[in-house]
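Troubleshooting entry. The earlier prediction with adenosine-5'-triphosphate gave an output that would not parse, so I re-checked the input for stray whitespace and re-submitted. Clean input:
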Amino acid sequence: MIKIDRLTKRYGDPETGPLVLDSLSLQVATREIAAVVGPSGAGKSTLAQCTTLLERPTSGSIVVNGDELTGLGARELRLARRRIGTIFQSDGLLSRRTAAQNIALPLEYLGVTKAGVRARVGELLDRVGLLDRAHHYPHELSGGQRQRVGIARALALRPTVLLSDEATSGLDPDSTASIVALLAELRDELDLSILFITHEMETVLAVADTVARLDRGRIVESGALVDLLRDPDSELGATLRPHRAAQQAGAGEAPWRVQYGEDGVPADWLSVLAAELGSPVSLLGASIETVHGRVVGHATIGLRATDAPLTVAALRRLGLEGVPVSQPTAAPARARALETAS
Ligand SMILES: Nc1ncnc2c1ncn2[C@@H]1O[C@H](COP(=O)(O)OP(=O)(O)OP(=O)(O)O)[C@@H](O)[C@H]1O
Ligand SMILES: [Mg+2]
C-alpha cells in the first residue's frame, strides 16, 4: 500500500526552486496497478523518485506499508526501502555480471549466505521464466529478457511495492505484452501495489486497475480504468477508447486508426473501402466531435487486407488518413475484466 499525501517537490531551493510536484495525493492499494500517465516533464519520474525518497520531498507525506518515510532516520529508511522494488526503462543491469549474478546483488549486499542466494536466485529466475538464461550476460539477452532480470532483481528482497518508470518503453509489442502480463500475475500472487508510469496507452489498457493523469505536477484526472472508459466526459477515457477499440480486432484482423478529413467523409466509406480492398472491413470504434465549429472524427477499423501502401492509398481517395496500430495484447485476466467496459 502506498499513500502519498499532498506531496510537493521543488528542485533546488525549497522556496523558489521550480515547482515540479504540486500538492499531489495518490494511493495505490494492495493488489492494485495504478498507472500514471502524462506529458513529458509532467513530473512522473520525480514522483517515482520521491516515493523512495531518492529525491527528498519538499513537503507532504509518503506512507509505504504503514511507515511514513519522510519521518524515518537513515537506518529505518534503509529497511523501509527494501520493501520497495524499482524497475526502470534502462534495466540498469551490470554488464559484467550474468543474469543470475545481477539478481543476486541485493541479496549479497544483505549478507545472505551463498546457499541462500543460490536458492532465492533460482526461484526468481524460474518465476520470470529465465531459468535457461541464468548464465547469460545482459548483452546476450533480448530487451524483454533484460527487463525480466530487472524485475527478478527488484523482487529479490520480497518487496510489497513496485515502482515501474517506463519499464516497457522501447520494447517491441510482444515483449511489452509479456512484461505487463508478468506484472499483473505478480500483483495477484505477491499482493503487490504497483505504481506503473508509462506513456503508452495500450499498456495502460493491458495492465492498469486505476489511471491518474499528471499534468504540470498535478493530478488532473484519475479513476478506475473501467469507469474512465465508460465516462463520456473523461479526457482519459477519450484517449483510451480508440486504443481499446483497436484491441477488439478479431483474429486475422489488423487494427487501423483512421482520421476523417475536414471535408467529412462519405457515409458509405466502409463498404467502398471493403470493395476497393477486396476484403471485409469491420468498424471497431468511432467518434465524431465538433471542435471550433469544425467536424473532427476518427475511427478504428479492422482490416484483413495486408498491403499497407495500398490501404493508405485507398483511404486517401476517400479523404481519410490511416495508420496501422501496433499494440501489445492485453493480459488475459485484464482483458476479461475490461470486456464489460467497452
Ligand atoms: N534533478 C533535477 N533537478 C532539477 N530539475 C529537475 C530534475 N529532475 C527533473 N527536473 C525537472 O522536473 C520536471 C519534471 O521532470 P520529470 O523527469 O519528473 O518528468 P517526467 O514526467 O518523468 O517526463 P518524461 O515523460 O519525459 O520522463 C522537468 O521540468 C524537469 O526538467
Ligand atoms: Mg520520466
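This one parsed fine. The first strand starts at residue 2 and ends at 10.
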